[in-house]
Amino acid sequence: MLKGIDPRVTPDLMDVLMRMGHGDELAVVDSNYPAHALPTRSGRVVELPGLNVVEALRLITGLMPLDGFTDYGALWMQRDGAGDTPDPVHLEALEVIGAALPEGAKARSIERQDFYAHAPQSYAVVRTTENRAFGCFILRMGVVF
């Protein structure tokens, strides 16, 4: 047990975050996402049972800096046919992400099929027990100054 670390941060999550570097991406997904069928660069799937995606994002962004040097620090999956109109799960998550983004950085939406094509380029996947559809996000690792 470590002091000052939220006990919901699992050893697997800590290991993944510690191995990531600037520009690496982390997919944080809902329970519908085929995490084991779409392997990532590391092949790692971190399970966070009992946490919804908003709770997981709050936990992760408390440890992981988001990137402010590219055109996005985070991506969120669009609902089919909805374009940039966020669902309630996106609105809740974007509050958390927005608070963690460095000044000038942005969170952008990405069409669902493009998300499925992009996510396997991530370093790893964190799967939550979020049951709201389209509750999937990609966080891009920034730097600590």
UniProtKB/TrEMBL annotation:
Coiled coil spans: none
UniProt key word Isomerase: yes
GO molecular function, one term: fucose binding
InterPro entries in the cross-refs: RbsD-like_sf, RbsD/FucU_mutarotase, RbsD_FucU
GO biological process, one term: fucose metabolic process
Alphabetical UniProt keywords: Isomerase
Catalysed transformations (reactions): alpha-L-fucose = beta-L-fucose; beta-D-ribopyranose = beta-D-ribofuranose
Protein known as: D-ribose pyranase
Annotated organism of origin: Gemmobacter lanyuensis
Organism ancestry: Bacteria, Pseudomonadati, Pseudomonadota, Alphaproteobacteria, Rhodobacterales
